[in-house]
Amino acid sequence: MIQLKGIEKSYRRGVENVHALAGIDLEIAAGELIAVVGPSGAGKTTLLHILGCLDLPTKGQMHFDGARVDTMGESQLVALRREKIGFIFQQFYLIPGLSVFDNIALPLLFSRKKADPAVIRELAATVGLGDRINHSPSQLSGGEMQRVAVARALVNNPEIILADEPTGNLDSENSEKIFGLLRSLHERGITVVMITHNDELAQRAQRVIRLRDGKICSRQ
Length: 220
Ligand code: ADP
Ligand code: MG
Known about the structure:
About 35% of the residues lie in helices and about 30% in strands. The chain has one domain (about 30-55, about 80-220): Rossmann fold (3-Layer(aba) Sandwich), CATH 3.40.50.300. It is an alpha/beta fold. The structure holds adenosine-5'-diphosphate (ADP) and magnesium ion.
């Protein structure tokens, strides 16, 4: 479903070039549950941004469902992200002034689709917050906020969910709940790629991709 071939990504920092990714070959099949691990600065977030078409590689080829991505223009990338990809971040990124309902529905605004209240309620129920749709984020715990973010990532019916340290700000009980949710999405056929520092969770993925210095140093 996603193929990366010889992917490199460098950033200019002053006069220096930082090689965040230094030659990545990777295939991700539809429906996989993958953990990405590695030390800070290894290139994990950069890789996730490229998988999510948020950023283009400096070098190399990328295909998403057979379509060549690395030569796409911004409007094609926007459409691809909107139709196929859901993102979850360590910091949740909920909008404080909006209710749980409106936070979940937010991506629909960008797709110019109307929110079907029944669908939003069902998503809230899927993440165990069916009775909290009128709450504001400040009335929720961190674990609950991340569950709202999971529901929001699902609102456009994505093929793939990309999560950057989704349990990084959570205690072990809430980490377990978020991982359980991601695993249930995988069981429904959604592809899940999760960056994590939690080895115990990583080992429970189908495949662990370990990055170091912008390269894949092991894939089990
Ligand atoms: P990780 O998520 O594994 O900690 P990142 O992908 O965030 O690693 O970063 C990999 C390397 O690329 C790091 O050296 C980082 O400082 C650098 N980097 C990441 N994003 C940028 C950017 N926008 N501009 C400059 N350097 C960046
Ligand atoms: Mg990172």
